[in-house]
Amino acid sequence: MNPPTHRARESTARHDAENRTQVDEGITRVFLLLGKRWTGPIMSVLILGPAYFADLRRAIPGISERMLSNRLAELAATELVVREVDKGPPLRVSYQLTRAGAALEPALKVLAEWARTNLPEPSRPTDR
Fold first, then answer.
1. How do strand 51-52 and strand 81-86 relate by DSSP bridges?
2. Which of 52, 58, 94, 116 has a CA that sits 20 to 30 A from residue 24's CA?
3. What are the structural domain ranges in the chain?
């Protein structure tokens, strides 16, 4: 097979530019929400089932209580997560995915598999 000629590459580049006149609004909206730091890990824990705030905090290393609270409030505001206060004592707050949140499970699993296949492993500190 012969490599494409310069003329063929120009034609392809021009064609591609014509197809990139607008960004997909749905992709933009979903990544504005799910692309925020910590949102993906929170969703991945909640896919497994309802969880108490403290359990989420323990399951997601490095997240502060304030950040977890903020992200959960955002997810609740977008109706992906529901917050429930369990009558105590002790008073405990649990979170679970709504139907809309649970509907993201297949997409999140595909993204997780893509990351395992295509992204390098994060560097980990070495023990000294």
1. unpaired
2. 116
3. 49-118
The tokens for 93 are: 């707050």
CATH of domain 49-118: 1.10.10.10
pLDDT at 84: 96
Q: What is the pTM of this model?
A: 0.76
Q: What is the pLDDT of residues 28-51, one digit of tens each?
A: 999 999 999 999 999 999 999 999
For 4, 16, 18, 20, the CA distances from 8, given in Å and listed in that order, are 6, 12, 16, 19
